[in-house]
Design goal:
Order of helices and strands: EEEEEEEEEEEEEEEEEEEE
Distance between the termini: 42 Å
Low-confidence stretches: none
Mean pLDDT: 91
Shape: globular
Radius of gyration: 18 Å
Oligomer: single chain
Strand content: over 45%
């Protein structure tokens, strides 16, 4: 059974703020560039104890899809297919998905070829056949997805990579998230290094709820708002 996590952000910045959530990029065994997408975008929050609540789970999905352009910051990815995955443990192999394409080049997972071959604890795998290549005009991607709590969409892309044909990618998701303030949109690829103030929220220590305040210095601090 999946576990649910919650992050509450109070706004005491003195102005309206929009908070964004993105997942810490997973490690990928081959060392490919991992493109991070905005996972959730909150509504604008007025200062003065206004707040936004982000909810996530540790049910992960393999995803594949296309983008209008080659993967780069400010490009929005579109999920075409997803499949729930089980991460490997010390005693149980994890999911290994088989990614291929339709005749028009759109990627999908052939679930009849799903196996349990991921052996590294905390990982799952995506195997690509010879038809899947990031250099194609459809700009295909594969990667990691999570459930969108606002739409219940399963497999909303949170981190993607450019696939090459006939490869096996081992992916290690993390229950670690980042919060920032800005004007990005959901599923937009971001340049993490170009974002200003960021808040890292790590749930690997067993916590399920965490609360922070965005103060009038533009800094995220632990705890709820200060009473005046």
């Amino acid at each position: 059974m999946s576990e649910t996590y919650e992050i509450t952000i109070y706004n005491e910045s003195g102005g309206t703020a929009t908070f964004l959530l993105f997942q810490a990029p997973p490690q990928v065994g081959q060392g490919q560039t991992v493109f991070t997408n905005i996972y959730q975008a909150g509504e604008p929050v007025a200062s003065g104890e206004g707040k936004v609540i982000f909810t996530m789970t540790n049910q992960f999905f393999g995803v594949c899809g296309t983008a209008a352009q080659a993967l780069n910051p400010q490009v929005t990815v579109q999920e075409a297919a997803s499949a729930a995955v089980t991460l490997a443990t010390a005693n149980t192999a994890g999911t290994s998905l088989y990614a291929t394409t339709f005749a028009d080049g759109t990627p999908y997972f052939d679930l009849s070829k799903t196996t349990a071959q991921a052996t590294d604890p905390g990982s799952y795998q995506i195997h690509t056949d010879g038809s899947l290549n990031y250099k194609d005009d459809k700009n295909p991607f594969i990667g990691l997805g999570c459930t969108d709590p606002n739409t219940s969409l399963e497999g909303d892309p949170t981190a993607v990579i450019q696939p090459e044909p006939n490869q096996t990618y081992t992916i290690y998701p993390q229950v670690k998230f980042w919060i920032c303030e800005g004007t990005y949109t959901t599923n937009e690829i971001i340049d993490v290094k170009a974002i200003g103030e960021q808040l890292e929220v790590d749930f690997s220590d067993g916590k399920f709820t965490q609360v922070f305040t965005y103060n009038d210095h533009g800094v995220f601090v632990p705890g709820g708002p200060t009473k005046h």
